[in-house]
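Field notebook, page 467. I keep forgetting to write these up properly, so this time I am using the form the group agreed on. The chain and the ligand, 2-acetamido-2-deoxy-beta-D-glucopyranose, are recorded exactly as supplied. Prediction of the bound pose follows.
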Amino acid sequence: MARLCHPKCRLGNKSMGWLQFLLGGLVIIFSICGLVKFYSAGFFFHNEDICRQFTGVKDAYEGFDIKALSDRVGEVVNKLESLQEKLESAVQQMEKDKETLPNITKFEYKKYLEEEVIRPLYAAHISLRLIRLPKAEGIHNSTMKEEPLINTFVIEEIRKYITPKESRTGKLNIYGTERIYNTIGHACVLYKKELEEYMSYDIGSYCNDDWNLAQKLMLNGCDPLPRRRCLTRASMVYQKPYPINESLWKLPDDRNVRWSNYQCRNFKCLMGNNTKRGYFKCVGCFEMEKEELKWVTNSSLSVDFLISDVLTIKPGEMRIGLDFGIGTGSFAARMREHNITVVSTALNLKAPFNEMIALRGLIPLFVTLNQRLPFFDNTMDMIHTSGFLDGWIDLQLLDFILFDWDRILRPGGLLWIDRFFCVRKDLDDFMYMFLQLRYKKHKWAISPKSKDEVYFSALLEKPPRAI
Ligand SMILES: *[C@@H]1O[C@H](CO)[C@@H](O)[C@H](O)[C@H]1NC(C)=O
Ligand SMILES: *[C@@H]1O[C@H](CO)[C@@H](O)[C@H](O)[C@H]1NC(C)=O
Ligand SMILES: *[C@@H]1O[C@H](CO)[C@@H](O)[C@H](O)[C@H]1NC(C)=O
Ligand SMILES: *[C@@H]1O[C@H](CO)[C@@H](O)[C@H](O)[C@H]1NC(C)=O
Ligand SMILES: *[C@@H]1O[C@H](CO)[C@@H](O)[C@H](O)[C@H]1NC(C)=O
Ligand SMILES: *[C@@H]1O[C@H](CO)[C@@H](O)[C@H](O)[C@H]1NC(C)=O
């Protein structure tokens, strides 16, 4: 009550602070209102229609990502709007409590300005700065008005990564190009949140233990994935690997794998008879005694060819190859015994397939189906595929993959399709796919898998291409 009776008492030193605060708030609010009006008038391309009003022609914004740009601008505008609302409601609150208002200390006033005004303003300022405006004249000699995807990402490290790097001398680099483009898969834009999580780290410090996030991104089309500038974690008790004369057919040391992202905690647990093994592709692949029988012992199924039979087709000619599938590298191990170097593709689908292959002394190639294979044309003596491509695969996708395999196989190279399986009624479609390349048929077999499914194996030779 005392306060109410003595309104003058508020006109002390501290009231100056109030006055400054109110005036400051009003200045900010007016400038923001101006900005918001400017925005709603369409100065920042709100959507295509408004954009057309200003530019007249659609062509004017071809070559840059109008959507990403307007998203970024929208973010800044939202930040400013919420700041405005906050300040307005603070002012209203003050009006309401005019009489009962407690004195605000300088300290509180400073704190309020810092936390509630300066910080959000700063964030909006940074966001504005991050927006790269399109260059009307195009980038270098291209018609593109901005670097691809640059306004799509907010995290600074991703933007740094995808910004092309010119050579320091200003001349052409060793490849004869002007710039080095670090690439990422275009589907990265669909996994913006995950990618930003992946790329949030302190440069030079330890990365999170997030290989599974990386693999998830790759499998979802964010492939290639950006490189990172943090240190990958390793097993704390890493042991030196077994010598090659022992490692090929022996389960590796459990201590050489980081198990935290798997259901199992050691290799024994990955046995096929363990129902809690956590993975479902290539069940039994971790049982070395079973793996040792593959491709060297007669099987009851006609679709199982023997390595010795395959190699006698081209004696001495097979030296390098690719095993495209899911497995622990046993095919490559067998081929190594024939002095043939085979690279095995591997994805860690709920089990450490990559680590297993590497610890056996073989080469795991961590690739998905998304990408062109990283081998040059006409280079491989052999491609073996098993356990991965089967009836689920889209025919057009299979077509692209088959032509890519054809590209890397050398003339006279062998394509060994091993136990491809599909439902019986789809067999003709897949046969057509495999036969369209007009390879020479060395071996060809079909066996029933279950009531409606069949296995299919073939050994095909790429013909010479004398054109
Ligand atoms: C406000 O400040 C005046 C003097 O500046 C003081 O007399 C009064 O008690 C203060 N009121 C409150 C609620 O702190
Ligand atoms: C653009 O192309 C011209 C010739 O085609 C070349 O002389 C010039 O250096 C190029 N400029 C840039 C920035 O690439
Ligand atoms: C493997 O080779 C090393 C020497 O290179 C030898 O000492 C060791 O006994 C061999 N191991 C087996 C299982 O043959
Ligand atoms: C799985 O089979 C192996 C032998 O291959 C055996 O030693 C092990 O006890 C079996 N595990 C289970 C859970 O049955
Ligand atoms: C597989 O069977 C064939 C005859 O059917 C025989 O000639 C060959 O020796 C057998 N190979 C093995 C590894 O058992
Ligand atoms: C592989 O190479 C080694 C050394 O050159 C040789 O001793 C061995 O007989 C070869 N093995 C086969 C299966 O050709």
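OBSERVATIONS:
- DSSP finds 15 helices and nine strands in the chain.
- The radius of gyration is 32 Å.
FOLLOW-UP: compare against the apo run.
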